Input
Amino acid sequence: MNPETDTTTALKSFLSFKLADKTFALEVEKVIEIIEVPKITSIPKAPAHMKGVINLRGQVLPLIDTCVKFGLPEIEPDLNTCIIVIDLLLKEKTIRFGAMVSQVLEVLEKEEGQIHASPSIEANYNLEFVKGIIKENEDFIVVLDIDKTFSVEEVKLMKDTNEKKTKASKTK
Amino acid sequence: MAQYDQMFREEGNEQLEIAEQALLSYESHADIGYIEEAFRALHTFKGGAHIFALTNLGDFAHMIESVLDGIRHGLLTDEPRIADKLLKYLDHLKKLMNDPELKDSQTQLKNNQLVKEIKALSSKISDAIKKSDQSKETALLEAFIEQEDEENISTYYLTIQPLIDIESGSGHPVFGILEDIQEMGNHKLVPAYKTDGSTIERWDLYVASQATREDLEAQFMFIEDEVELAVHKIANFNLFNELGFEELLKVLDKTPTEQKLSELTDYVGSLKETMVADSEDSDAPGKDSKSSSIRVSTSKIDVLMNLVSELVTDQAGLKMMVSTDPDPQFEGLVENIERHIRQLRDIAFEMTLVPIDRLMGKFRRLVRDCAISINKEVNFKVTGENTELDKIYIDTLSDPIMHILRNCIDHGIESPEERSKKGKPAIGTISLDAYYSGAYVHIEISDDGRGLNTQSIQNKALELGLINENDKLSTSDIYELIFQPGFSTAKNVTNVSGRGVGMDVVKKNIEDIHGEISISSEAGKGTKFTIKVPLTLSIIDALLVKADHSHFVLPLQVVHKCYELRYDSLTDDFNNLLVLDDKQIPFIDLRSEFSLEKTPVPEYCNAIVVKCRKMELAIITDEIIGEYQAVLKSVSEYYKHQEFVSGATILGDGSVALVLDADKLVEQKTKLA
Output
C-alpha cells in the first residue's frame, strides 16, 4: 500500500447536475454513462415522471424525468439536457434506467469526512431521498440517495398518489 | 477443479435421470431395451465418477450396473419389484452426489445397508453369468445397426436403363439428374455402352446418402417415359466406409447384371457379422454415439440469441437505409445479409429449443411416487414428448405441470374402491399430450377422475368471500375461481397437495411467459387442463401500426382481420361498438385510449380485429405499416403496472415501439369501468 492509493480511497467522487436551476449530486460509482437525449417513446397511462423508454444500443431503457420526480416542472429537452444512465440494485436484480436532468455539471472529489448529514434541509425535499450535503465553493449541494429515489416501490407510490389525485379531480 | 466438479455434477445428474427414466419405463413395459439404456447411462456415470476420484459413487454405480447386467441377461427374472429396488439405489446415488465422501453418518449407514443388499443380488447373478452369450450378441447387433442408422445414411444401388437412344455427352436431362444424385454423398457411377461404343445401354449407380428411396425416384420423375429405373436399398448405413466395398464394386463390373444384387446383399450380410465381432470387444455399445453433439453452456446460447436479436434489429435499420437511398449494388448486399441473418436466426432458435421429453422423467417419477404414497394406482401416458419448446419455457413450466399432476392424482383420481364402484377401471389414467398448434404449443393434462365439482367450488368461494351469493357465474367462471390465491377445496390437507398455494402460482407462472391455462371438466368423467404457450419468447411476427406519432406492435397471432373506415364514423358512438361484417364488435381507439393528440385526426383509419381471450376487439389505428419481425424486449420493472404493454421492440430507425397485449388492454378497461 503506497500513500497515494490511500488518499484516493479516502476521496469520494460525486457527479453534480442541475434540475431546473438547482444543483444536486449523486455518487459517481452508480453512474454507467451520460448520453444525449434520443427519441423518446412515451408509455401511455404511466405516471408523469415516467417519461417513457429509449433505445440505448439495442437495450430498452426506462427513462425518468428527474425534475417531475422532485415536483419541479417537466423538462423541455434542450442542448444541455442529458440522461444519466444508472444501475440500481433492487432485490438482487440490477435495473438499469436513465434519469433525465436539466444539465450535467462536473465530477467533484470530496473526502469522506466532507459529506455532512443534512441538518435541516427545510421541507422542500423529502428528507428520505437525501444522503447528505457537500459543500462546494460556499454552495451546498444535496447528494441524493439513488437507491431510495428511484426504487420501484417509490415509483408505485408515486403512481398511487397520482391516481388518487386524478380520481379526486375527476370527482370534482 | 471446481469447474470440472460442476461439469461432472451436471453430466452425472443427467445420466442418472436417463437411467431413472429408463427404469420407470421398464417398470411399465418389461423391455430389455430400457435396461440397456439405464446400463449405458450408469456406465458413463461410473466413468465420470472414477475420473474425479469419487470412488464411493463409482463403486456404487458399478454395483447397480452389475445388477442391470444380470437383468439384461435374463438372470434375475424371478426377483420381485426389481425396478423399485433399482430406483431406490438410484435415489441413494443422487444423495451421494451431494455427499460423495460419506461424511454424514446416516448416509454411510444407508450406504452399507444398500451395498449389502446389492451384493446379495449380484451374487445370484454371478452364479449364472456366462450362460447366455447368444442374447448379448443379438442385442449388440441391434444396438450397433441402430447406431449407424442414427446418421440416416443408407446405401442404394440404382440401375437406369434408357428406353430411347441416349448418347454419352449429349445434353439429355438424365445427365443432370445423375450429377445431382452423385452430389448427395459417396457414389460410384458405372455406365455400360451398347456395341457402337457411344450409346448408353445402362448405368449402375451406387450412392450413399441421407435421401430416401422416394427422394431418389422423384429425381427421375420428369423422364419416367425415357428410362427404366430400379432403386434398391442395400444397406442402412454407408457402405463406402466399409472395407472391401470398392473392391467389390470393381468385381461387380464384370458380374452379369442379374447377379449383382445378390452379390451385394451377401456382402452386406457378411459385414454385419464382422460388426458384431468387432463390437464384442468393447463392453459399452453406443459409447461413441454422442460424438456428434457437444455440450454448450446455456449462458452462451443466451448470449448468442441476444446477438442474433441485435443483428435482426440492425438488419431492419440497414433495410430502411437502402429503401431511402436505392443503390442496386448495396441493395443486393443487404438482401444477402438479410437472408443469412434469417438462417442464422433459425439455427440459433433451434438451439434454444429442447424437447419436452426433458421433463418427462421427473414427471413419471412424481406420478409414480405420488400415487404410491396415497395408495392409488395411476397409469401415466405421455404423447408428443418430442414437441420442442424454448428452453426458458421448459424451466418455467416444470413446476406448474408438476403441481397440476399432483392435483390430478390427489383430487382428480378416485381411490381404487371408489373407481370400481363407479364402474371405472381400478387404475386411473393421467395423460399428458403436447402438440403444436399454429404459433403455440399446447400441453394438455387430463385425468379420468371425478371431475370438478362446481357446487363445492362455489361454496368454498362464497366462504372465502371471493364471490357474492347473487353472482350468476358461468361454468368457466367457476373454474377460474380455482386460480384465486388461497383457494383449495380439498377436505383433508394431504402432503401431496391441498395447501391452497398452488393454482394461483401455476397461473401466474404460465402467464409470466405469455402463456394461458384453461380448464374443462365433466363431473364423474375427468378434468382437463390445457396450457398454451407461444413457441418462442424472443422474436415474434407482428403487425406494425401507427396511431398519432407513435408506433405500436401487435402480435400477428392475435390479429384476425383488418378494415378501413372513416374516422368520423367512430365519434358519435357512445357505447364504443363497431359493426363489422354484420357483427357488433367493441373497439378501443388508441388515440383516445392513450391520449395521443399531437397530430390532427386522419380522415380514414384502420380497425384491426384481434382475438382476445373472451371476445373479439377492434383496435383503431391511424395506419397499418405492415408486417414486422419484432425482437421482444422487456420494458423493465418500472412499467409493470402498464400491463397492456407486453414488451417493446426497436424499429429500423432506432426508435422504440411498444408491443400491445390486447387481453390486458381489455382487462384494464373493464377494471376501470
Q: What stands out?
A: Chain B has five domains: 2-131, 149-279, 298-354, 356-534, 539-672. Residues 103 and 520 of chain B are 51 Å apart (CA to CA). The interface with chain A takes residues 309-310, 313, 550-551, 593-596, 633-642, 644-645, 648, 650, 654-658 of chain B (CB under 8 Å).
